[in-house]
Task: structure prediction
Amino acid sequence: MEFRYLGNSGLKVSEISYGNWVTHGSQVEADQATACVRAALEAGITTFDTADVYANGKAETILGDALAGERRESLEIFTKVFFPTGPKGPNDTGLSRKHIAESINASLKRLRTDYVDLYQAHRYDHETPLEETMQAFADVVRAGKALYIGVSEWTPDQLRAGHALAADLGVQLISNQPKYNALYRIIEAEVVPTSRELGISQVVFSPIDQGILTGKYKPGQPAPEGSRATDTAGGGANFIKGSLKDEVLTRVQQLAPLAEAEGLSMAQLAVAWVLQNDNVASAITGGSRPEQVHDNAAAAGKKLSAETLQGIDDALGDVVEADGAQVGQASPTARLT
Result:
């Protein structure tokens, strides 16, 4: 495993991190989830990412149980706050002082830890003054409940404003967590340059685009049994259905010889691709089976040749989404309940 600094801080994180969005508490049972966490630890992964909204708290609980007994100082545990949790009352969502203060306490209890290394605003809250949000985050840090703060899917202007307020309050905003992969590159135009300027790293999710970049989804064919696209009960199918387009799947199949030439699986090629961007501190990978976790982790430290990088661009062509204007659209304009 290789390690990188997270933003302009002294905190190092594993290049490959393990995340449990969709899987823990929904797609896979607790025993299998624990086996995947053990596989991550065996592979040298020290960074674990979750959120209170994942399975309405169950994902945090499962992760906390799975990491129990590990040396806390040897781990970096990340979680997030924003989306509706609990009974989903009027204050069970957003980035108000009330919701942040209550959510961090609930997350720490579920994770079985006294602090998280990184506490992240899961989206931008258009209905709470940013000053209130950043003051609440600063108080969480001063109380020792989080060491650093981060955000997810924020625009360049939001990053600048949040970073400035954090600096005034004496706390470090060091990360942004966006979706980023070879098919989805909207952060490259403005988010990455802005982040470099501010000393913010990307901790990216969906580096294999929920399995699409593994090549297992074939154009014109049914989704493989047990894949995310067939997970109707746990909700995985809803997240991926919009991306299962034959023109995209056809292009992805052209990546197979490039992966073979590099001595990598297609999943490893996809994860290695995001790590070629030096503003990416870590790529969040998941897995419903331990072997998937090990396969993803093997992408750490891989340097792709210029010919391979160009080959990926040529293969994917015009199915790549790179419109920077889409950044921030994942943040609801009205508070969810």
Observations:
- The chain has a mean pLDDT of 91.
- The beta strands are 3-5, 12-14, 16-19, 47-49, 76-81, 116-121, 146-151, 173-176, 201-204, 280-285.
- Residues 97-111 form the longest helix (15 residues).
- The radius of gyration is 19 Å.
